Amino acid sequence: MNSDERAAIADEVRRTVRDIPDFPKPGILFRDITPVLANPSLFGKVMVAIASPFERQGITHVVSIESRGFILGAPVALELRAAFVPVRKPGRLPSATVREDYTLEYGTDALEMHADALRGAKGVLVVDDVLATGGTAAATCRLVERAGGKVFACAFMIELAALGGRARLAGTRADSLITY
Ligand code: AMP
């Protein structure tokens, strides 16, 4: 996919994402991706746009974060013929896990991944829908390292630049289709 095609898809995504003020709490402008998912032609193009920079880059595993990350990560993994690895909230994964705690605006949260999920991994791509403060993606990168993998890059559909998430991923390549 060339840069003009990518820019056209980004424009269509920008026109299609729905902004919901004050969700889930006052002061948050929620970027609702469900209208993109409801448009199969656009959804398909978004998948290719997210995956195409990573073709022939040796990506063996795509790691995604529940739950909206799964919606994008699974088709991107198939597109790249890579293994799909889910990262989940504590207590959801059935086998032995590795865990990372991370801070939120108020309080802390944690994420888990199966400890053996990256066995044989060469290149790992982390995929999520939105890069906001970067706390979730940074914790996921630490999980990948903890499980013995190496993050090649992180890829997002949407980046909220004002929240500075990119800085929290310092040293890791971060691609986003559209930036607000
Ligand atoms: P963060 O850890 O702050 O980068 O937050 C990332 C996660 O929060 C992503 O998985 C998003 O699904 C979600 N998120 C944060 N802010 C927004 C927003 N304004 N609109 C939609 N999703 C958001």
Quick summary:
This protein has helices at 3-16, 34-37, 40-51, 68-79, 135-146, 165-168, and strands at 18-21, 29-32, 59-65, 83-87, 97-103, 108-114, 123-131, 151-159, 174-179. The protein is α/β, with parallel strands linked by helices and 180 residues long. The chain has a single domain (3-179), classed as Rossmann fold, CATH 3.40.50.2020.
Please trace the helix and strand order, writing H or E for each element. Answer: HEEHHEHEEEEHEHE
Q: Would you give the CATH topology? A: Rossmann fold
Discrete helix count: 6
Distance between the termini: 23 Å
The top level CATH class name = Alpha Beta
Structural class comes to: alpha/beta
Described by its quaternary structure, the protein is single chain
Q: Would you give an account of this structure?
A:
- The protein is α/β, with parallel strands linked by helices.
- The protein has a single domain (3-179), classed as Rossmann fold (3-Layer(aba) Sandwich), CATH 3.40.50.
- It is built from six helices and nine strands.
- It has helices at residues 3-16, 34-37, 40-51, 68-79, 135-146, 165-168, and strands spanning 18-21, 29-32, 59-65, 83-87, 97-103, 108-114, 123-131, 151-159, 174-179.
- A five-stranded parallel β-sheet has the order 4-3-7-8-9, with helices on both faces.
- α4 links the parallel β3 and β4 (83-87).
- The chain is globular, with a radius of gyration of 16 Å.
- It binds adenosine monophosphate.
